[in-house]
Structures are given as C-alpha cells and as structure tokens.
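Case study 2.
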Amino acid sequence: MSDDFRIGDRVEIHLNEKTWGDDGWFAGKIVRIEPYSEHRRFYWVELNDNENALPGKGATLISVLNPRNIRKA
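Prediction:
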C-alpha cells in the first residue's frame, strides 16, 4: 500500500492525543518522500493550515513512517 503514495497526493494522517494533544485524522498533502529501509518510507505531509490547527504545537509539516497512520483522502 505504501508504494501507492506520490508527492502531491492528498492524504489524511492519524495523530494521537499523547503526542499531539489531539486525536484523529488530519488532512494534508505529501510534499516529500524519503527512504527509510528497503520497504518503508518517511512521508512528509504538509497539513492544511485552516482545517488542522494543532493547538500549541504550531506544526504544519509532519513525517509519517507507520503505514497505518496514513491514507489517501
């Protein structure tokens, strides 16, 4: 499944409350893909600013390694 993602794809990423202060799926766009291993990649996702303000975090660019935490929008 992870090979289906490309730069520019609209995706949703799952963030947990323990780390981000909010729990759920957040919309964004893949802006960079970096290899991690032969079968895994880091997907750098730029969150949609207007829809996904993360209170107190100020993060708009997040890397996702676990394929369970990213899906096509």
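Residues 14 and 69 are 5 Å apart (CA to CA).
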